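Weekly puzzle thread! Below is a chain. First person to post its structure in token form gets bragging rights.
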Amino acid sequence: MRILLLADAFNSLTQRVFAELRDLGHPVAVELALRDDGRLTAAVRRHAPDLVICPMLTTAVPEEVWSAHPCLIVHPGPPGDRGPSSLDRAVQEGRDRWGVTVLQAVAEMDAGPVWASADFAVPPDVGKSDLYRGELADAASRAVLLAVERFASGAYVPVVPPVHTWRPYLRQEERRIDWAHDTTVTVLRKLRAADSQPGVLDTFLGAQWYLHGGHPEPHLTGFPGEFLATRHGAVCRATTDGAVWIPELRPRREPGGPATFKLPAATALGPSLPEAADGRPRTGGSHADITYEEQGSVGHLRFRFPGGAMSTDRCRRLLDAYRHARTRPTDVIVLGGHRDFFSNGIHLNVIEAAPDPAAESLANIEAIDDLVEEILTTTDRLVVAAPAGNAAAGGAMLALAADEVWCRRGAVLNPHYRLMGLYGSEYWTYTLPRRVGPAAAARLMEDALPLTADAAHALGLVDRVVACAPGEFSAEVTRMAERLARSAGLRARLGGKKTARERDEAVRPLGAHRAAELERMRAVFDDPAAPYHALRSAFVRKRRPDGTPGHLRTERPNGR
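Winning reply:
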């Protein structure tokens, strides 16, 4: 069928639905619902789709669209649930199960007949955005594909739920943290229900900030609301019965002022960050965005960065941790977090906030290149990249530096750079053609489209696709890595790896790949008129584009 996706943005769920429908052979196009001025209706009429699907739409579908074309809405709540903050409320209320509904668009929002639904368990310690990209996205995928199958059959009659419950937008008044009375559990629920957007508005150190994300601190204590410490960019605040870490802050936008954006909390606070009596930053606590542990002869280097963004500091700290892992008596090193993002490459927000964005862009690229080079030149053991969730741009290329890539089914990969106006680095000119061939590498870069894990496997980007729930991925990877470390052919494989690296180095040194890539990147960074700077600013400040990008409006058949 010819399927058109309508969405506010080409976000993670829209990308997943897009890629999975393409894998099934459906020609798929995308239109962004940017404004209600008749252009969206005209665009739908021009596409003349068999079916319209709205994976992420916060505004009403125009009557001219849903009355003329079958139009299915993906609602992040169980059948009968209605309202714009369904998932936020589920997390803030501590629900242990939730659901996704695919319903038909009608005049009344979220009130149409149901074509399919799926439920899922809500882990108690996961934030809204992680849940959205994980358990909810898995359930949405099942529901959307079932709805498409039912629609195609021509025999299914959608069902109207007997009861509808409308729940209004979750406003800041309900999200507000009462530091004098809220327990750690309550504070974490509020922070996690708003972790990506909109954040929790709070007054802190004399200014108003939106707090984004939260993790428990088991040891530090203090006066409720008090600043206790900073560690790896996060700040720690006391609660009535403990403390929480807040990884990111966003200043409240001044009336008429420019859009603000999230930054690592310590970076955002800058000179406002309280100091200890000796004038040094207060540090301590247990917060860690990078950890290392060993199980048998397998070393697990785990990292979790908000939004998958790897700043210069994070790249350097991860490189230090990797170098430590290389000193340990292991046969296999596994890279990746327990769940959610693997990496999305350089940290555009930190770059945007830097006094010299061009210089910080280059420093960030150099830092991630150093990490990739260290992985590529590891010849005495096998390295496995294990994306539990999405990876894009330099983060996708970081995974390709490993000997094997084990990807969770449900992850979405975007191995390209051009939508940010960049040529790319991270040794992609070596690792990408090595896996898929020069022609396919060029096509991936030019198409700039998302891939499912299965499509990536068919191309050769991924070696194993792991079919499991988000919370099961880490344990399954551990079992797989232990089997790999015990495999009979491990020593011979390591010998072959060293020989192949020496052969490739003789053909074209890694340094030559890096120099050529950085020459292209430096030319962009140093040119104030290069599109990268405007594209980066628009991305960071969440400015909506003037129209749907051309590469999305073209119908795309089979993604493989």
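Puzzle host: Confirmed. Bonus trivia for everyone else. Residues 25 and 558 are 5 Å apart (CA to CA).
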